[in-house]
Specification:
The chain is α+β, with helices and mostly antiparallel strands. Among the domains are: about 1-45, no CATH class; about 95-135, no CATH class. Helix content is about 45%, strand content about 15%. It contains five helices and five strands, in the order E-E-H-E-H-H-E-H-E-H. Helix 2 (about 50-70) packs parallel to helix 3. The protein binds zinc ion. Zinc ion binds next to loops.
Length: about 150
């Protein structure tokens, strides 16, 4: 049995019990479904009230879904890419620490062997290197490194 909240064309609300949704459809078409108050056979299914709070809940939940997609969606992909980038840097470049600026000048000097380095540099040092035509790339900071 299925219970439907029904409403007639005079706005009388009542419940109707049907053995199936198909039976309800058939009976409503034939005009068997009658309003117990006024006897009108112009009866339609009332909007199910429980559906409204459910929709509102979904709307309230949505910011959380955005948050969770930020953790597991494209943002997680970006973090994974940054992690991979750092891994590649660690494996293929030499760590020079705070000597980065002077080492960078050597790396970009054709007289020295070609190699890659990474390390720490101040904004001023990076600016100077840039003025000298030496390209540097800021490495992304990963969440686990922000301690
Ligand atoms: Zn009625």
């Amino acid at each position: 049995m299925i219970k439907y909240s029904l409403v007639c064309d005079y706005d009388h609300n009542f419940d109707g019990w049907f053995s199936s949704s198909e039976v309800y459809e058939e009976q409503s078409i034939v005009g068997v479904v009658q309003c117990p108050v006024c006897g009108s056979t112009d009866v339609t299914k009332a909007l199910m009230m429980p559906g409204v709070p459910a929709k509102q809940n979904k709307r309230i939940d949505q910011p959380q879904q955005v948050l969770s997609s930020a953790k597991e969606g494209p943002a997680a992909h970006m973090v994974a890419m940054m992690r991979e980038l750092r891994k590649q840097v660690h494996e293929n470049a030499e760590y020079v620490g705070p000597r980065f600026a002077e080492e960078a000048r050597l790396v970009n000097d054709d007289e020295y062997e070609q190699r890659s380095i990474y390390g720490e540099a101040s904004i001023e040092e990076v600016r100077q290197l840039n003025d000298e035509g030496i390209e540097t790339f800021p490495l992304p900071t990963l969440p686990e490194e922000q301690n």
